[in-house]
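Support request from a user on the community tier.

User writes: "When I paste my structure tokens into the form, the page sometimes reloads and wipes my input. The last time it worked, I copied everything first. Here is what I submitted, just in case something in the input itself triggers the reload:"
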């Protein structure tokens, strides 16, 4: 099976239906770019995949054990302990995943350099919003899981670092890691192996970026997305 297979997923909050019979397929060892406006259900979908939310109906099959060490998750909202330093934060999460102190130290050194973070002793509470978001990404990458779920990880990141992050994601995907990444940057999603264009709780299209563009006779993903939104049908 692939990394994730979802069939006819329905999930909401009370009387509000957010996911409306959604179908989704994520291949193992690939990057899946999930695109859509705020409020369309992307974060709810990730939380269902993670097992944080139960489906109202439908089937969700995930290759990794969720929740568990097979998954790395970087949420859209900041969920860090402000009194801990960067080093203490990474050590805390590394030990939760049964990493050795030596392995944590090695990964910490690389992640701080890779993500342009301040010195490891800096308290999380004194970091900027963008730095906190990068610490959250570091936590997801720390234990090198087989499945990564990244919710808007590049918001507020400068273009050079965004490109470096995508280069790394491409590398680890080629080595077998399966990645689902939500983003508002439609241009960067073109680097994904597969994209899902989401609106109003369903996927309007799901295919390689080029195939989606070809299906709409579009020259960009943004143009294709606009065309699909106007039609409101899945291809």
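"...and here is what came back when it finally went through:"
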């Amino acid at each position: 099976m692939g990394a994730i297979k979802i069939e006819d997923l329905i999930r909401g909050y009370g009387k509000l239906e957010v996911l409306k019979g959604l179908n989704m397929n994520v291949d193992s060892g690939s990057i899946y770019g999930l695109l859509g406006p705020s409020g369309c259900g992307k974060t709810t979908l990730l939380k269902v995949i993670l097992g944080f939310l139960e489906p109202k109906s439908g089937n969700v099959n995930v290759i990794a054990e969720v929740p568990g060490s097979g998954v790395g998750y970087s949420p859209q909202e900041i969920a860090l302990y402000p009194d801990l330093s960067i080093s203490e934060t990474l050590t805390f999460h590394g030990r939760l995943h049964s990493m050795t102190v030596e392995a944590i130290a090695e990964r910490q050194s690389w992640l701080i350099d890779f993500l342009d973070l301040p010195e490891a002793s800096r308290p999380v509470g004194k970091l900027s919003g963008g730095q906190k978001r990068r610490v959250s990404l570091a936590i997801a990458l720390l234990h090198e899981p087989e499945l990564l779920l990244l919710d808007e990880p590049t918001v507020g990141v400068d273009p050079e670092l965004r490109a470096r992050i995508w280069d790394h994601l491409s590398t680890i995907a080629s080595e077998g890691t399966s990645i689902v990444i939500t983003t508002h940057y439609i241009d960067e999603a073109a680097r994904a192996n597969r994209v899902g264009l989401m609106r109003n709780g369903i996927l309007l299209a799901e295919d390689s970026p080029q195939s989606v563009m070809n299906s709409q006779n579009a020259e960009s993903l943004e143009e294709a997305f606009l065309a699909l939104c106007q039609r409101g049908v899945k291809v």
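Agent notes: The reload is a front-end session timeout and is unrelated to the input. The two ends are 23 Å apart (CA to CA). The first helix runs from residue 42 to 50. Escalated to web team.
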